[in-house]
Write a structure and sequence with these properties.
CATH topology of the largest domain: Rossmann fold
Number of helices: 17
Shape: globular
Number of domains: 2
Helix content: 25-40%
Length: 443
Amino acid sequence: MTTSERAVTRQSRRRTWRTVAALLAVFALIAAACGGDDGEDDGASATEPAPTTTEAAAPATTEAPADEPMAPSGDPIKVMTVTTLNAAGPTYHNIANTAMAYADYINARGGIGGRPLEVTVCDEMFDPAVAAACAREAVEENMVSVVGSFTFFAESIVPVIAESDITWFGPCCPITPSELTSPHSFPIGNQPMYAVGIIKRAIDDGCRAINAVIIDGAQIFLPPMENAIAALGQSFGDIIILPPTAQDYSSEVAQATTDADCVIGIVSETPYITWNTAWTQSGTDARQYGPQGNLNEISAAGNEESTDGDIIGGMYPDISTAPWDEYRLALEEGGWDTTEHDYNSLGGMGTWAAFAAFTLIAETIDGEINATSFFEAASATDNLDLGGMVPVLDFTQEWTDGLPGFQRLFNRSVVFSKLENGKVVPLTTEFEDVGDLATGNAG
C-alpha cells in the first residue's frame, strides 16, 4: 500500500519559512535525537500561512469473517499530530509516518472501542504562526487530542487547545514551559533526564576523570548534569562548549581527552560525525557516553573501532526489543521504508508510545469520547502500563519536588545501549529513575 493510498493530502496555498537561527542552535540536539532530516525551503512566503494537513482515511465498514476483527464503524475518533515536514531546517517524517502507521494498524484490528481512529498530521513548517493555525484547526475540527507530536513551537499550540480541553498528549521531547507545566500536557518522554543518566552510568562503570562536551545552545542540560555529578561525589574536569558547525574538531577532542578516561557528550548527530572522525585520529583510549539518536550508527560510520564500546543513554529501549514488536509489525505491514527515516529514535518510538497510551486511556471511557472526557480520563490515570516502552506512569502525581518548571515530567527514567562494531545494541531494558540525581540528591 502506498502513502497516497493511505492518506489524502490537502496542500495549503502558501508556505512560509522564517529563520529562527537562535532557536535552532538551542535545540539542535533535540532535533537530531528525534530522528530529524534536513529539509529544503521552497522559497515562498505568506502573511497568513496555513498548515498542511494529511489525514489517515477511516476504513470502510464491511462485514468481517468470524476469525477476523470487525472493521471499525461509527463516527471516527479524531486526533491530530503536529510536526515539521516542509522546512529548510530539521523535519520529522518519522513522526508523521508513525502516526499514520498506527492508524492503519489499529483500524485493521477493530479500531478503538470499535470506532475508527482518524489521524490528521499538521505540518507547522517550522513557523510559529503555522503552528498556531494547527492549534486552531484542532479546535475547529473537534479533535479529541493532539497526540505524539514534536515541534519547537508548542507555546503557540498548548494554550490554544487547552481552552477547549484538548490535550497535548504524549510528546516525546517536552522542551517548552507549557509542555512542562500545563495540566493539559501529558509528556511521555523525559527531556533532559538522559543527560543525567549517562553521568551515573559513567561513574558506575568506573570513570574517575570525566570531561563534558556540550553543543553550543544546549547549555540548558548543564544544571541537572552538574547536580548529578556533584551528588555522586565528582566534578567535571573540563566542560567544552562545542560550536555546532565546524569542519574539524581536532582541538576540541584534544581538550576533551586531556587527563580524562571518559567523555560525556551532549552533541547532535551531524556534529558527532565530524567529532568522531577527529576522535579516531586522536588515538585516544577514552570512552564516550552520549545520547540516543545522536551517538548512533550514522555518526559512528567509518569510526567503528574508536567508538566500539561507547555507551548511549536514552528514554526508550532499542527498537529491536520486545516492547516494540507491534511497532515493527506496523511498519512492515504498511510498507514503510525504514531505511529512509530513523524510527529507532525519540521521535519514532515516542510517537508510537503516545498512540498506544492514547488508545489504552480512550478505551477506559464510558460514554462519548471527546476532548473533555479524554482529558478527565488522562488526568485520572495513575497506572499507565505500556509494556516496557516507558516505565509505568502516574499522571495524577506531578513532580512538584523536582526541578523547578518541570512538574509535568512524569517519566524520569533512562535505559542504555552501546555501540558494537558500529551497530547500536541494547545494553539494558530495566528503567532507572534518575529524577533525584537531577536535583542533586544521590538518594
